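A favour, since you know our structure tokens better than I do. Just paste the record in under my message, thanks.
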Amino acid sequence: MSISLVKGQKIDLTKNNSGLKKMLVGLGWDPVEQKKSFFGLLGSSLPDVDVDASVIMLRNDKLTSKEDVIFFGNLKSKCGGVAHMGDNLTGGGDGDDEQILIDLAKIPQDVNKLIFVTNIYECIRRKQSFGMIQNAFIRIADDSSKNIAMFNLTEDYNGKTALIVGELYRHNSEWKFNAIGEGTQDTSLGDILRKYSN
């Protein structure tokens, strides 16, 4: 049975499910319809908001190598434990917009956290923020695609250009998930990475 998470909630993933080694993390969103209102131009349109999902692998809570950032420009971690399935440029369609496969058995022992973040590509030039996005979520499923947990991001993220969505982290020998849902004004993935590099 899938657990519906609220912001700040933490759950055990492996404590009562020792067989869970591979999982799918799906991230999804929809563009908000923009109403046209210029002298009789009726109808609405969906803006092309290019949201990029990325995973930051931390060692001792720090980013130590650019190879530990998995995104559309680096689709697979060196260890093979994190694989990004590709970039969605519009957010159109139902279900997951971007998917990341996790193989816990391949994650090096010194990696203690996987941070899941999203940011809007070229948000400054395009004058876009997460206020133009709705129905954002992150879900965790097992390797048979059965949902384990779902976190719907329901806050007003207007003016925010990046989201720290959640994190998988080690606690003793188990893996847990923390639903974060924190909006930031970072304008690129590089800006987000600086938070974890200092």
Notes: The chain has one domain: 3-34+47-197. The radius of gyration is 17 Å. The longest strand covers residues 174-184.
